[in-house]
Amino acid sequence: PSSGGRTGKAAAHRAGSLPKPQVPRSRSFVSPVAAASENPGKVAQAQAEILDQLRGTVGEGLESRKKVFRFLCLKWHPDKNWTEDPELATEVFQFLQAQKKWYLQ
Question: For residues 81 and 85, which has the higher predicted lDDT (pLDDT)?
Protein backbone atom coordinates (compact mmCIF):
# COMPACT_ATOMS: atom_id res chain seq x y z
CA PRO A 1 0.00 0.00 0.00
CA SER A 2 2.82 2.45 -0.73
CA SER A 3 2.23 5.41 -3.01
CA GLY A 4 5.87 5.88 -3.92
CA GLY A 5 6.73 7.55 -0.62
CA ARG A 6 4.29 10.39 -1.14
CA THR A 7 1.49 10.73 1.35
CA GLY A 8 -0.88 13.37 2.56
CA LYS A 9 -1.75 16.73 1.04
CA ALA A 10 1.67 17.25 -0.54
CA ALA A 11 1.33 14.06 -2.55
CA ALA A 12 -2.24 14.89 -3.52
CA HIS A 13 -1.19 18.39 -4.58
CA ARG A 14 1.66 17.04 -6.72
CA ALA A 15 -0.70 14.53 -8.25
CA GLY A 16 -3.01 17.38 -9.23
CA SER A 17 -6.03 16.47 -7.13
CA LEU A 18 -5.91 19.62 -4.98
CA PRO A 19 -6.43 23.09 -6.45
CA LYS A 20 -3.50 25.46 -6.42
CA PRO A 21 -3.75 28.10 -3.68
CA GLN A 22 -4.86 31.49 -4.89
CA VAL A 23 -2.67 34.44 -3.99
CA PRO A 24 -4.79 37.46 -3.06
CA ARG A 25 -4.02 40.57 -5.08
CA SER A 26 -4.82 43.69 -3.13
CA ARG A 27 -3.84 46.12 -5.89
CA SER A 28 -2.39 46.01 -9.35
CA PHE A 29 1.01 47.39 -10.23
CA VAL A 30 1.09 50.71 -12.02
CA SER A 31 4.41 52.02 -13.20
CA PRO A 32 5.55 55.39 -11.81
CA VAL A 33 5.45 56.83 -15.33
CA ALA A 34 1.81 55.84 -15.71
CA ALA A 35 1.03 57.12 -12.24
CA ALA A 36 2.54 60.49 -13.01
CA SER A 37 0.56 60.79 -16.22
CA GLU A 38 -2.70 59.96 -14.39
CA ASN A 39 -2.37 62.76 -11.82
CA PRO A 40 0.46 65.12 -12.80
CA GLY A 41 -1.02 68.05 -10.90
CA LYS A 42 -1.13 66.17 -7.61
CA VAL A 43 2.41 64.83 -8.08
CA ALA A 44 3.81 68.27 -8.91
CA GLN A 45 2.02 69.85 -5.96
CA ALA A 46 3.29 67.21 -3.52
CA GLN A 47 6.83 67.50 -4.88
CA ALA A 48 6.75 71.29 -4.53
CA GLU A 49 5.56 70.98 -0.92
CA ILE A 50 8.35 68.52 -0.14
CA LEU A 51 10.98 70.76 -1.70
CA ASP A 52 9.68 73.75 0.28
CA GLN A 53 9.88 71.76 3.50
CA LEU A 54 13.35 70.40 2.74
CA ARG A 55 14.71 73.79 1.67
CA GLY A 56 13.23 75.39 4.76
CA THR A 57 15.00 72.99 7.09
CA VAL A 58 18.29 72.42 5.23
CA GLY A 59 20.10 74.85 7.56
CA GLU A 60 19.20 72.86 10.68
CA GLY A 61 21.40 70.22 12.29
CA LEU A 62 21.74 66.75 10.82
CA GLU A 63 19.62 65.05 13.52
CA SER A 64 16.79 67.50 12.94
CA ARG A 65 16.97 66.98 9.16
CA LYS A 66 16.92 63.21 9.65
CA LYS A 67 13.71 63.54 11.66
CA VAL A 68 12.12 65.68 8.96
CA PHE A 69 13.18 63.23 6.26
CA ARG A 70 11.91 60.21 8.24
CA PHE A 71 8.58 61.94 8.81
CA LEU A 72 8.20 62.65 5.09
CA CYS A 73 9.17 59.08 4.21
CA LEU A 74 6.53 57.70 6.55
CA LYS A 75 3.96 60.14 5.24
CA TRP A 76 4.57 59.23 1.58
CA HIS A 77 5.61 55.56 1.79
CA PRO A 78 3.38 53.61 -0.63
CA ASP A 79 2.73 50.82 1.89
CA LYS A 80 1.39 53.38 4.36
CA ASN A 81 -0.82 55.16 1.78
CA TRP A 82 -2.32 52.32 -0.23
CA THR A 83 -5.90 53.17 0.73
CA GLU A 84 -5.65 56.77 -0.45
CA ASP A 85 -3.67 56.84 -3.70
CA PRO A 86 -0.84 54.30 -3.95
CA GLU A 87 0.33 55.50 -7.36
CA LEU A 88 0.69 59.07 -6.14
CA ALA A 89 2.46 57.89 -2.99
CA THR A 90 4.89 55.80 -5.05
CA GLU A 91 5.76 58.68 -7.36
CA VAL A 92 6.24 61.16 -4.52
CA PHE A 93 8.21 58.68 -2.39
CA GLN A 94 10.60 58.04 -5.27
CA PHE A 95 11.05 61.79 -5.68
CA LEU A 96 11.72 62.12 -1.97
CA GLN A 97 14.36 59.38 -2.07
CA ALA A 98 16.10 61.23 -4.92
CA GLN A 99 16.44 64.27 -2.59
CA LYS A 100 18.09 62.30 0.21
CA LYS A 101 21.70 62.75 -0.90
CA TRP A 102 21.80 66.55 -0.98
CA TYR A 103 19.50 66.99 2.02
CA LEU A 104 21.26 64.67 4.47
CA GLN A 105 24.90 65.36 3.61
Answer: 85
